[in-house]
Design brief:
five-stranded mixed beta barrel; extended; 11 helices
C-alpha cells in the first residue's frame, strides 16, 4: 500500500510530503491497479475521455476531460462541482479500465452526474486546497461543540472542505431524524462558508475513518471494499460460528463484512451434507446429529438414550442411512457405518532418515552421572590411602 519514496519519519512521508497522497497514488486507500495501462489501442479507436478522480478518503467520481488535457494517474486536477466553485482531487484511474469501473458501478456514459475536469492543478490551487484541509480538524472540533450546545443527538464524524475552501461538507451519523437548521446557521456564522450536512451509515463512517480490525489488518472497507452488501446472521450459521455479537461485529457495530467472503464456498459444500435436524432411524433407536465438520466431511451422531457415546459418520454414510429411512428401511445400528472402528490412531516414531542425531542427545541420564561420581570418589580414596599408611 505504499511506494518506495514514502519512507516515513515521525508519521509523515519524507518522499512526497503529502501524508499519503503521493504522486504515484500507491499509498492511497482504494487504489486500483491499471493493468491495461501498457496495452496499445486498436487502430482507429480513440482513447477513453473519462477519468476516475479521488477526493478525501474513499470519495471518488468520474469526470470528463478534453482531448488536449490528458491527465495521468497521480496528478492533481481541478474539477467542476454541482454548485458554484471548484474542487481539487487526484486522478486514480485512466484509460479503458475506467469504462469497466463505470459499468461495475452502473454509471451511464451520458449521465448528467459526470462533470468535467477544468485543468491540471497549479501551485496556487494546491496551496489553497492544503490550507483548507489543515482547517478541517479545528472546524470539526468547533462544530461538535455547537452541536452539543444545541443538544442534538448526532455524531459529526468527518469534515471535508471543497478545493477552493468556500464550502465544507459535514458527515454525521444519527439514529433518528435530526433538525439541524439552527446548527447550519450557527456554523455558517462561525466559519463564514457554505455548509452541507450529509448523513452516512455506520459502515460508511468506518470506511472514511479507517482503523485496524480484529484480524490485525486494516479495515477492508477502507482499503479495497467498495460495495457494502448486507450481512445477516445466516452467514454465521452456515459457517457454524457462535452467535456472539462481540466476536461477529466489527468496529462499525454491524456484522463483519468478511462473513460474506467464504459464504458461497460453505453453501456449496453443505449441499453434500444432510440437515442438522434430520433424525436417523435405527433398530437401536433414533440418532440425532450433534456436530458437523465441513472440512473433514464428517458428522457425529448420538442415540437418544445414550448422549455420551458419539458415533462418527461420513456425509456419504449419513446420506445412505437417510435414503434407506425414506424407503421405510431402518438400519441395524450406527456402529455399522461408524468411522471409529475403521480408523485407528497410529503413533509416529522419530526416524533418523537423513543422518540426524537423536532427539534426546542433550538429555544425560542420571544414573550415568552417579556412576561417574562414584568412580571418581573411589580413585581419590585409593590415592589417599598409601599416603596415610606412610
Amino acid at each position: 500500500m505504499s511506494c518506495s519514496n514514502c519512507s516515513t519519519a515521525s508519521g509523515t512521508p519524507r518522499g512526497c510530503q503529502s501524508n499519503g497522497t503521493c504522486g504515484t497514488d500507491s499509498c492511497n486507500k482504494l487504489t486500483v491497479h491499471n493493468w491495461l495501462e501498457n496495452m496499445v489501442l486498436p487502430a482507429g479507436q480513440e482513447p477513453f475521455r473519462i477519468a476516475e478522480v479521488r477526493f478525501k478518503n474513499s470519495r471518488k467520481g468520474f469526470y470528463r476531460f478534453s482531448e488536449d488535457l490528458r491527465p495521468s494517474i497521480g496528478e492533481a486536477v481541478v474539477t467542476d462541482v454541482s454548485q458554484s466553485g471548484h474542487d481539487v482531487g487526484r486522478v486514480t484511474l485512466t484509460g479503458e479500465l475506467v469504462r469497466f469501473q463505470m459499468k461495475k458501478k452502473k454509471v451511464a456514459m451520458d449521465s448528467d452526474e459526470i462533470l468535467s475536469i477544468k485543468r491540471k492543478a497549479t501551485s496556487r490551487d494546491l496551496e489553497v486546497w492544503q490550507a483548507a484541509r489543515n482547517k478541517e480538524e479545528e472546524v470539526q472540533k468547533r462544530a461538535r461543540e455547537l452541536a452539543l450546545r444545541l443538544n442534538l443527538q448526532m455524531k459529526l464524524s468527518d469534515v471535508e472542505f471543497q478545493g477552493d475552501g468556500k464550502k465544507a461538507t459535514f458527515y454525521y451519523t444519527a439514529e433518528s431524524r435530526v433538525d439541524f437548521r439552527q446548527l447550519i446557521k450557527d456554523m455558517a456564522k462561525a466559519f463564514g462558508i457554505r455548509i452541507e450536512m450529509r448523513q452516512i451509515g455506520l459502515r460508511f463512517e468506518a470506511s472514511r475513518l479507517g482503523g485496524i480490525g480484529s484480524c490485525g489488518r486494516e479495515l477492508c472497507c477502507s482499503t479495497w471494499l467498495t460495495d457494502f452488501r448486507s450481512v445477516s446472521t445466516a452467514a454465521a450459521r452456515y459457517q457454524q460460528l457462535s452467535l456472539n455479537p462481540q466476536k461477529l461485529s466489527g468496529q462499525c457495530g454491524k456484522l463483519k463484512c468478511c462473513l460474506n467472503f467464504e459464504l458461497d464456498a460453505y453453501r456449496f459444500a453443505l449441499k453434500d451434507f444432510p440437515r442438522m435436524d434430520t433424525k436417523l432411524k435405527t433398530e437401536k433407536g433414533i440418532a440425532l446429529c450433534q456436530k458437523m465438520d465441513i472440512f473433514k466431511g464428517k458428522l457425529w451422531y448420538t442415540y437418544k438414550d445414550d448422549w455420551m457415546q458419539w458415533h462418527e459418520l461420513t456425509a456419504e454414510a449419513s446420506q445412505e442411512i437417510i435414503a434407506k429411512n425414506r424407503k421405510g428401511e431402518p438400519v441395524a445400528a450406527l456402529e455399522d457405518y461408524s468411522e471409529d472402528l475403521k480408523t485407528e490412531a497410529k503413533a509416529v516414531a522419530f526416524e533418523n532418515v537423513v543422518g540426524q542425531d537423536s532427539l534426546n542427545r542433550f538429555d544425560t541420564p542420571k544414573n550415568r552421572n552417579k556412576k561417574r561420581s562414584n568412580s571418581r570418589n573411589r580413585n581419590r580414596n585409593r590415592r589417599r590411602s598409601p599416603r596415610a599408611n606412610d
